Amino acid sequence: MADTLLLGTRKGLVVYRHSAGQWTLDRVHFTGFPVTLADRDNQGSWWAMLDHGHWGCKLHRSDDEGQTWQELAGPAFAEGDETKPGKPATVKYLWAFAPGGPQFPNRIWVGTEPGGLFLSEDRGATFSLVRSLWDFPGRAEQWFGGGRDDASIHSILVDPRDNNRIHIGISCAGVFFSPDSGKTWQVRNKGLRADFLPDPAMEVGHDPHLLVRSLQHPDVLWQQNHCGIFRSTDNGERWHEISQPDGPARFGFAIAADPDDPLSAWVVPADSDATRVAMDLALCVSATHDGGKTWLAQRNGLPQAHAFDITYRHALDYQNDELVFGTTTGNCYHSADRGGHWTCLHSNLPMIHSVRFV
Amino acid sequence: MLKFCGLRPASLTWLEHRRALPTLRFTAALGRFFPGLGQTDLPGTTVDEVLRHAEARFPGLRRYLLEDQGALRQHVNIFVNGERIRDRDRLSDALNEGDEVFVLQALSGG
Fold first, then answer.
1. Model's pTM, two decimal places?
2. Mean predicted confidence (pLDDT) in A196-212
3. A291 within 8 A of A231, measured Cβ to Cβ
4. Which chain A residues have a beta carbon less than 8 Å from that of B108?
5. Which ipTM did the prediction report?
6. Which of A135, A148, A174, A336 is in the most buried spot, having the most CB atoms within 10 Å?
7. Domain residues for A152?
């Protein structure tokens, strides 16, 4: 069981440690700087993705759990790469991180805005653009920004059965699958709906907000999408909508799956895509334990009035019956019983971008 | 005036050379990432050349100032003798002896 929580916030990386039966704030790194995502790799190193704004995005790695950090060169586009014709590509945001898996212990995947997937085979010393995806037919015309200026890669899933097989989620383009470590790509958007397009069934142009996998049942994928919640039981070949027709579990950003139970997942609903506050200003987490047939709103211990919180896509995580999520208004909530009861770990943090048990 | 100081010709040549170099100054905000970064004289006949010499002293500095393909980042400005540079894409603005190059950033946000 992980005993550390990494919170990427708008003003630094906040680390919690679990001891004597409780989580307590241990240390803050990069104070004052936005940390868009923080995670751990297969070898135990911590990674922090920073957005300095004026000075650009920076990638840092720590091999000693935050005692020291090394700034890496990070992903970068090469001369001549264009987001669209006439628009030179430059990394504007580091938004997805995935270790390559046990078969590739030195491999790191990073997804960016604009929609570049970068691969490192040397633990981040160097990165190269996955050109097969960048050159995928229609990228410049069919991919577009959803919330950010340009299309962005926010999800990277490495298949635990074969680490060459990866899915990525792109806002806005959809889900793409590679069977061969990024050499070739297939679109995996069947069954999704893009209500914001003239043709909601377009092959490309969907807006998955986050993809996750039920790790011990690897053909089961979930996504919180801009237009609902979707689940696949065939490794993304086809998606089925599982949104709650008359309940809060429809719109949102984050989703977490139980690795052992392919029928269980959690989302943090938000009120429509227009207002983006907690549903009815009452914060809840919605859980399903039957593959999305039914949803249960979990509110015990969460504020039920005047709550403006929403939860960003990387700011919900699950491990061994524990759930934790962070919000845009700097609240961090924890449950030790799969969402049955919640307690507030901290209530005046900066905006929380990401939460990870490591 | 130097001729009254008793300096040997070799020293005078060195001093004149030093005076000929452009002077590079940075906003103090960059000091957090590059301790030791201060006012320095560096060779170069364009802004780009001076920054390449600065990169040699402070590896990684250019990535803080420039986008992936070498253009100046949107919220970074460079002034030469108080005038904003014209070529933000290639930093080809010419430098003359003793020019003062000042790198700074916009202040924004909260």
1. 0.93
2. 95
3. yes
4. 53
5. 0.89
6. A174
7. 68-357
- Determine, yes or no, domain membership for A259: yes
E-assigned strands of A100-178?
Answer: 108-113, 117-120, 128-129, 152-158, 166-171, 174-178
C-alpha–C-alpha distance, residues A356 and B10, integer Å = 63
Give the number of beta-carbon pairs within 8 Å between A and B.
47
Coil, helix or strand at residue B16: helix
Residue A69 is encoded by which pair of tokens?
């950090």
Q: Say if A126 is an interface residue toward chain B (CB within 8 Å).
A: no
pLDDT tens figures, A90-141: 999 999 999 999 999 999 999 999 999 999 999 999 999 999 999 999 999 9
Query: Could you report the per-residue pLDDT of A135-182, keeping only the tens digit for each?
Result: 999 999 999 998 899 999 999 999 999 999 999 999 999 999 999 999
Please, which residues bridge with residue A346 across strands?
Answer: A332
Asked if the C-beta of A73 comes within 8 angstroms of chain B's C-beta atoms, the answer is yes
Helix (H, G, I), strand (E, B) or coil at A298: strand
Query: For residue A323, is it within any domain?
Result: yes
CATH number of the domain that residue A303 is part of: 2.130.10.10
Nearest CA in chain A to B76: A54
B69 vs A79: CB contact, 8 Å cut-off?
A: yes
Q: For residue B108, is pLDDT > 90?
A: no
Count: domains in chain A: 1
B30, B63, B74, B103: best to mutate for the A interface, most A CBs within 10 A: B63
- Residue A59 falls inside a structural domain: no
* A183: Cβ contacts below 8 Å, ≥ 6 apart: A132
The confidence score (pLDDT) of residue A200 equals 94
Which positions in chain B touch A91 (Cβ < 8 Å)?
68
Q: What is the DSSP letter of A78?
A: P
User: Letter for the amino acid at B81?
Assistant: N
Closest residue, chain B, to A11 (C-alpha): B110
Report yes or no on A21 lying in a domain: no
